[in-house]
Amino acid sequence: MRKHIKGNVSWVGYLDWDLQKFHGDDFTIHHGSSQNAYLIEEEKTILVDTVWAPHQFEYIENLKSEIDLNKVDAIIVQHGECDHSGTLPALMKERPDLPIYCTANAVKSLEGQWGKHGWDFHVIHTGDELDIGNGKKLIFVEMPMLHWPDSMATFLTGDNILFSMDAFGQHYAVGELYADLADQDTLWNEAERYYANIVSPFAPMVTKKVKEITALNLPIEIIAPSHGAIWRKDPLQIVKAYAKWAEDPREDRITVVYGTMWHGTEKLAHAIADQLSLKAPHTIVKVYNVDHTPKDDIAYEVFRSKAVAIGSPTILNGVLDSVAAFTYYLKSLKLMKGRKAAVFGCYGWSGEGNKVLREMMANAGFDVVDTEIKCSWNPENADLEQAAGIADALLSGESASADAPVESSGKWKCPCGYIYDPAKGDPDHGVPAGTPWEKVPDDWTCPVCHLPKNAFTKLD
Ligand code: FEO
Known about the structure:
The protein is of the alpha/beta class. The chain is built from 13 helices and 25 strands.
């Protein structure tokens, strides 16, 4: 069944009510999701994306019930990830001659996943247009690293619909289809949770693209992403939200995160939360055990917090692997700068946990305050009273030593082949020789292809 959107544009995607996990088991889904695909029927009949392979039968049969597949003139594949291209092989079996419009990087990702079949690829670049008749055309915009190198968006003139791909989406099954009809609390929580976990590593690119799209002065009336609700009422509200989240998502919140073995570190976590609430009644304080709450939910809370307290008991001269994994995840999100962190934990005999955790959080980009709680065996009143010091440090101006050394992580490589060498820097673009990768500004881009810093990978 198609769902009419506007003019001759229909939604022909898959509403995934039962989805529990995404990216394998890596990302937790709470309210279902959708793989949005679209059908445009002007003088030319155009498909925009497909759905995940498990739903290919529904997608193909639904299309066949609506149109004659032999009359489709082209498909726009905006992104190669299999939740959107998974049904492409089945579709191409039906129509091996179907022209595919996509980016050069999408040719690589599609052939890399589905094999080389001699498909009729038409590589697009930003500003390219496709005339689809009836006075309407599609204008393409490359969106590299939002969130894959192959990503792009498509603007339909006349109806003024921006098909934005993953950007501006949510993992949220919205039967009502439109954002203005959806439950607003769930919608905005899922939109921001999606941004925090999936888009935030590419925040510099978001800022750049939002400016670029705004500068195009496209009369956007509808933003139709590839997941979740379609934005038709004040559609630029989600673009503005992205700009804000990319600039600074911090609210008056502090998150306390911990792992625990025999509840000692848990008692410290609760004591810290109590002191925070006592000293700052208007600050929202939340407490999470990393083993009981999905990492993406806690990361979302940290994303919008101004500070975090994180604790682990010492085990095997380090910290619990669940706590270590969580700090690793925070580091991968690359947007934790400007947030304070404090560490705490219990120990029996050696007590290295706090030092290890302090290094992990600093390495993840946090400003780790000197105040900590290092508690021998179970907390006694004297230990719990130190929670006030942590609260004061997180609520006040205390920060880590400004001259804390930055660990250099060596050379980094852009997908285009350019290699950033700290010894050389990039003086032509304001990065002096000798600048370690970690000190290169977040808005610096590759001097060759202009991909953002987040697109680079570390050279071993
Ligand atoms: Fe929804 Fe990047 O795929």
